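Protocol step 4 of 5: obtain the predicted structure for the target chain.
Materials: sequence only (see below). No template structures provided, no constraints applied. The aim of this step is simply to have a reference model before the mutagenesis design in step 5. Sequence pasted as it appears in the construct record:
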Amino acid sequence: MKSVGLLSALLLALLPLADAAPFAPSTVSAFGAMPSSGAKSAPPTETSAAASSSSSSPELGKPICAYHQVTIPTSQPGPPRQKISVEDLTPTINSLLAESGMRNGVVNVISRHTTTAITINEWESRLARDVEEYLLKLAPPDERSSAETAREGVRYLHNDIEERPDGEEEAERCRENGWDVDDPDELRRWRDQEPINAHSHLLSMLLGSSESVPVVEGEMVIGQWQSVLLVDLDGPRDRTVGVQFLGYE
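Step 4 output (structure tokens):
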């Protein structure tokens, strides 16, 4: 389910783009989701029924292409201390799906942070603690980290803050994000706010940043015990995810 780009490209190729409504993003909270505006109607098309259903060919409704930026409040007490936690996104996605009116298609979910991940598995509190313990064994925090689980003798190059930005390309990326690192005082402020969190980045890369889930007859096609999960690898903090619906009413 990681092939977000491929699935989206295939689905978009099927959409009657000439009649589709303009892309209409929206920003919502997990506790107050707002649906995007509907698309213009398009001529119905036919598709073959699934092998497990009847032999009839149902008609597809209007095409849907809607994006939501969703705030996910942390369930853990603060302050941020590089703690790993797991949040269940499934109720939020189901709510947005119902409001979208999409019956068949795909929902893409993507993390908007470099120290969070998206995965599909069981949501269970004791398993969430197992996830934290296991991941910290794979990539323990730097000995210079403020994390309670910092391990002596562990060091990552990314955490050599005084050596960054490393080159003009990285300096330009800082400028593009609002940090004038050519000014010594501003450079000092940028370095002071940089966390010692290389292990969080590495774990995010291992877990992946997105999932793509089929939607059939208005429901996500996931197993009985499966949930779409946000794994915060540098928290606890409120986070944001992107949720995109591509399909038909």
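Step 4 remarks: Confidence is low (pLDDT under 50) at residues 16-24, 31-57. Helices lie at 4-14, 90-100, 125-138, 168-176, 184-193, 198-207.
Proceed to step 5.
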